[in-house]
Structure formats: C-alpha cells, structure tokens
Amino acid sequence: MLLANETHPGVNLARFVTVVELLESFRDAIAEHLEEYDQGIDRLQTATLEPGSDLCGMDCHEDHRPRKRIFCDIPPRFMSCELLVGERCELVEPPSKEEREEEKRRLYEQDVDEEIARGIAEYELLESRKVKEETPPVIVPDLSHDMESFFWILAWLCIHRAGPSRARTFELGSPDFSSYEALKKADSWSYYLYDVSEEHLESAGRWKQCVLDNFLRFEDMVSCVHPYFRGIITVLRQFHRDLHVLMWAGNRTHENAVIVGNRIVEYIGKVLLLRRTQTWDEEPGRGGDAIYNEARQREMERRREEGWFGKGADQGGSGGGTKTVQ
Q1: Is the pTM of this model over 0.70?
Q2: Which residue, among 294, 270, 268, has the nearest Cα to 281 in the 3D structure?
Q3: Are 82 and 174 in contact (CB under 8 A)?
Q4: How many CA atoms lie within 13 A of 200 on its CB side?
Q5: How far apart are CA 309 and CA 73, in angstroms?
Q6: In this structure, how many other beta carbons lie within 10 angstroms of the beta carbon of residue 230?
Q7: Could you tell me how many helices (H) and strands (E) the chain has, helices first?
Q8: Whole-number mean pLDDT of the chain?
Q9: Dist CA 211 CA 188 (whole Å)
Q10: Residue 147 pLDDT grade (very low, low, confident, very high; cuts 50, 70, 90)
Q11: CB neighbourhood size of 269 (10 A)
C-alpha cells in the first residue's frame, strides 16, 4: 500500500503501482485521519515516539482494500520540527531594512566585527519577535504535527523512492543519478532532513523548520525529487504553502490544522480530476488514458457521494461542484 505493512513495518515502505494509486491512498489516509480526530480519538497524546515503529498501519483485508489507522507511533524521520527540537517552532515577521541598519549601527559602535555584527543583529531582531514564555511549554503531539508529518512522508517518498517497490540508489553511475552534483544534493537533503541518529535529531528539526520557513530552501529540496514523482511536486508545493501559513505565530491551532488537512485532500482530488500528474501509464499492459479515466471516475463518484454537486449541476464536467473548504 502506501506507507507500512503492520506485519513487516520495515519492508516496502511505499507499495503502489502507479502515481494515481499513491495519490489516492495518500489523500484517503489524510481524510480518514481527520475523521478519526473528529470522532475524538486522541491516542497521539499517549503515543511512544520511538524509531522503527509503524507510522500509519496500512494493512489489507482479505479483499485487498486498505485498512488505515490513525498515527500512533511516528518514526522520528517523519516527526514535525517542533517534536524533534522540543520547543515552539513558529515563524515570525523578519526585521525591516531600517531595523537591520539601526541594529548594525548599534553593534558597530561597540567595535564588533562587521560580519559578526551582521549575524548578531539578524539573530537578535528575530529573537525579539518570538513569543516570550516564562516556562517553555511541553510539546504535545497534536493534529498540526500530524499534518506536517504527512508532508515529510510524501517528500521522503519522492526523494527516496524510484517507482513502485523500488528504492532509489544513492550511487554515482546508478540509473537514478547521472551527475555527481545531483547525487550530492539529494544525499545532502536526505541527511539534513531524515538522519535520525540521536545526536542529529535537533539539527533535523531545525532543517525542517528552515524548509517550511524559506520557499527557496523548499524549491532546492524538491529539485531532488526523483523524475518518476515530478507530477507530485504540485501537491508538495500546495502542502508547503499551507504549512507555511500554519506555522506563523498563533496559527498552529487544531481548527487551522483541520483546514490544512481538508485543503490538501481537496487539492489532491483536483489533481486527480484534472490530470495534473505526469505519470499515468506505469502499469504494464494498460494505457495511461485507461488509468486516468478510472481515477477520474472514482473521484467524480466520491464527490457525488459527498454532495459536491448542486441540483442541476453538470456532474460530468471538470468538477463544477458547489462544496468548498472554509
């Protein structure tokens, strides 16, 4: 299926046949996760966050339909930046040019080296904008952290997998890398974000915070996505934009996390409906149009069941539904 099999959590972390199946499973996992939370399941607050445990058990019934479960034990590589760092990771408004110049002048008067002064000024100004708390809060896993974890899962799949049931080979000369520069960049991002050795946990959290804060860093990261998954980059970009807003000071609330989850579920539905992924014909013996048409039909049926179409609406068009995410 998508993430992990309960009986073999370390095997085939990404089981899918096509990008369509991957996106459908990913969308359904988020939707069902939101539904579980809505029903009051709060197992996350008592979860033991240990390496190697199941992430979102996606086992199968005898009829081969996936049985999805709420996040229970999240492997550190997929944890949110706050859980890795152990403190609030909120975005704050950067200092203005005038404020930077004023702070540099103050430091120059104290005979501080220019390069050091520039760094001190930037750091102190940013620190001054953070919410001051007398007692650092205990970071309890919540829905906002889950939404961020879903993002890191999808990014991990796109960087570390090379298609159905195939891991990417991080070696020069392999089919996955044609140049040393591309290999070095992908390997570096893999290390920055997903190295979960004990001494590197906080560093990985800081890098994740940096990616969510900085759109240029994010674009540098997605440039390492394996070509097979390039059609999913549009989903990563939408997810990143929503998480960026969620991380602004005061925005990381349960209500806003629900909005982010619903927005990405809706967006993936649009991607499937409008054929905005690039790889539709990876299943042997079947044409891309056949796979796309089936995926589109499933999406249309889902929208009908959820009441997307008003009376008399064109149910066969490109999604002229009336349902919106608030």
Answers
A1: no
A2: 294
A3: no
A4: 13
A5: 38
A6: 15
A7: 11, 2
A8: 69
A9: 14
A10: very high
A11: 22
What is the spatial distance between Cα 289 and Cα 61, in angstroms, rounded to a whole number? 29
Query: What span, in angstroms and rounded, lies between the C-alpha atoms of 89 and 146?
Result: 15
> What percent of the chain is modeled with pLDDT above 90?
17
The residues facing 60 across adjacent strands are 66
CB 181 within 8 A of CB 292: no
Spans of all domains in the chain: 19-87+137-305, 97-129
Give SS3 for 172: coil
Asked whether the beta carbons of 326 and 302 are under 8 A apart, the reply is: no
> Around Cβ 209, how many Cβ atoms within 10 Å?
19
Query: Which residue type does 158 have?
Result: C
- 269/27 Cα distance (integer angstroms): 8
What region, left, alpha or beta, does residue 138 occupy, with left being phi > 0 and alpha being psi -120 to 50 degrees?
A: beta
Nearest in space to 74 (alpha carbons), one of 45, 46, 47: 47
Note whether 3 and 14 are within 8 A (CB): yes
Residue indicated by tokens 């998508």:
2
Under 8 Å CB-to-CB from 28, ≥6 apart: which residues? Answer: 66, 68
